Amino acid sequence: MSAETGIDQGRSAFREHRWTDAFESFRDADRQGGLPAADLERLATAEILTGGAESGLESLTRAHEEYLIVGDIAGGARCAAWMAIHLLNRGEGARAAGWLARSQRLLDELTEPDAVQGYVLIPVSLERLYGGDPEGALAVFSRIADIGQRFQDRDLAALSLLGTGQAALALGRAEEGLKMFDEVMVAVTAGELSAVPSGIAYCAVIGNCHVAFDLERALQWTAALDRWCRARPDMVAFSGQCQAHRAELFRLHGAWTEALAAAGVAQERSGRGDPQALYGGYYQQGEVQRLSGRLDQAEASFREAARSGYEPQPGLALLWLARGDALRAQAMIRRASATADMATRRHLLPALVEIELAVPDVSAARAGAGDLVRFAAECPMPMIRALARQADGAVDLAEGDPAGASLALREAWRVWRDLEVPYEAARCRTLIGQACRDLGDETSARMEFEAAHAEFLELGAAPAAAWAASLMGTEGGAGTGPLTPREKEVLRLVASGQGNRAIAAALFLSEKTVARHISNIYLKLGLTSRAAATRYAFEHGLAAG
C-alpha cells in the first residue's frame, strides 16, 4: 500500500471515529514517506484517544514543527496550545508552561486575527480557574467566547462555555453554571464537536454535576457518556473517567459490587492512557471498602488515589473515625476544610459534622450543619437538602432536641429514599430510632433500628450494621443484638476455641454451613476475626459457662 493510499484510508477512518484504524493507516503512511502537518495532527489525536499519550504528544510536537516549516504559524500555535492543555491535564505544569509560552510567542507573528488566539487562551483560563481565581478565569473565558463566535469555531465556543460554567460554580452560582453545562452537552450529543473537546466536556460536566450535588444530572450525563464510549470501543482516553463516574453512582445507589467492578476498570484505563481516572477509580474503591469494614484495604486504596495529587477526603478522615481515632479524624477534616475552595469544602461538611459529633464538639458540628443549611437555601438540589436536614437533625439529637431531630431526619430520609441512596437512608433511620428512644417510644425506636439494620446487612455495610445492632440490643437482656439462636450457638463454640470442623460435628452441620454462619456473625456484628468474635462473646455474655 502506498503512502498516499494510507493517508486516504487514515483520513476516512478518522472521519468515521475508527481511531485504531486511523492510527495504523497514518503510522504506516508515515513510515513510508512521512505525513503532512494536518495528518500528523490527526495521528496525534488518534494515538491519544487509543491510549498512546506519549507517542501522541510526540506526533503533536512533530505536527507543530511541520506547520512552522511550511509557514503555517496559526497551525503551529494551535498544536502548541493543545500541547499545553494536554500537559496541564496530565499534571505536568512546567512543560505546559513552556508550550504555552511558545504558543503566545507565535501569536505575535500572526499578521491577522485567527481562531487560534482562543485556543492559546484556554490554558491561561484553566490556570486561573484551578489556581483559585474564578473571577479572573471568567474574564478570559469571555474573551475566548468572543473569538469562538467571531470565527464560528464550535469547539472553541463549547470549551469557553464549559469553562464559564465551571467558574460560575466555583463562585457559588450553581444554577447558572448547570444551565451552561446543559447547553454544552446539547452541542456534544448533537455531534457538533470533535472528539477531544467532546470527551473533555463529558467528563468535566459530570464531575461538576457531582460538585453541585446534582445527582439526577450526573446520572443522565454519565449514561450518555457511557453510550458515547461504547460506540467507540477502541477509545481509552475519557473511558476510564466514565467508569470512575459510574463507580460513584453505583456506590451511592447501593450497588457496591458493580461499583468495585467499575472502579477496577477505571484503574486499568488510568494506566493505559486516561490518567485522570486514577483518583476516581481508587477513591471510589476505597469508599466501598471503608463502608464494608475493610479498613486496611480502604487505606491502601486511598493512598493510591493520593498519587493523583488530589486528597482522598473526606474518605480518609472517616476511615480514622471508623478505627476509633476521632481526634485524628477531626484534625484531618478540619485542616482539609479550612484549606479547601468553596465547592470542595461543601463536600467535606457532612463528614465534618459527623466527626465533630463523634469527638464530641457539638458547637463545631452545629457550625458545620449551619453552613450546609445555608448552602441548601442557595442551591435547592434534593441531595444537598437531604445532607443539610440529616446534619441538622443529628446535631439536634446531640443538643437534646429529639423532637426537632425527628422532624429533620424524617425529611432527610424521604429525600434519600426518593433519590434511591440506601446507605444514607438507613443512617437516617438509625438516628430517627435514637430520637424515638429519647422521646420514650421504645417500640418505634426498635422498629427503626431493625429496618436500618436489615438495609445495612443487604448492602454489606458491616460497621453500620454493628452500630444498628448495638442499639437494638440495649432494650434489656444480655445485649445479644441481631443474632439468630443458631448463630449464638456457633459464636459460643467459636469463643470456646473450637474450629469449624469441631463446631460442625457438635451441631450436626456441614463445615460449609458453619462457615456461612460465621460469615453472617462477622457481618452482623461488624467483626473481622475469630479473636474479635471471641472477645464480643465474652463481653456480651455469650461465651460458654
Present the secondary structure layout.
Blueprint (H helix, E strand, L loop, with lengths): L2 H13 L3 H15 L3 H13 L3 H17 L3 H17 L3 H15 L8 H15 L3 H17 L3 H17 L3 H16 L5 H17 L3 H16 L8 H14 L3 H15 L6 H16 L2 H12 L8 H8 L3 H14 L2 H17 L3 H17 L3 H17 L3 H18 L2 H17 L3 H18 L2 H11 L12 H11 L4 H8 L3 H15 L4 H10 L6
Helix pairs in contact: 1-2, 1-3, 2-3, 3-4, 4-5, 5-6, 5-7, 6-7, 7-8, 7-9, 8-9, 9-10, 9-11, 10-11, 11-12, 12-13, 13-14, 13-15, 14-15, 15-16, 15-17, 16-17, 17-18, 18-19, 19-20, 19-21, 20-21, 21-22, 21-23, 22-23, 23-24, 24-25, 25-28, 26-28, 26-29, 27-28
Structure description:
- The chain is mainly α and 545 residues long.
- Among the domains are: 238-310, Serine Threonine Protein Phosphatase 5, Tetratricopeptide repeat, CATH 1.25.40; 482-545, Winged helix-like DNA-binding domain superfamily/Winged helix DNA-binding domain (Arc Repressor Mutant, subunit A), CATH 1.10.10.
- The protein has 29 helices and no strands.
- Helix 7 (116-130) packs parallel to helix 9, helix 12 packs across helix 13 and helix 25 packs across helix 28.
- The termini are far apart.
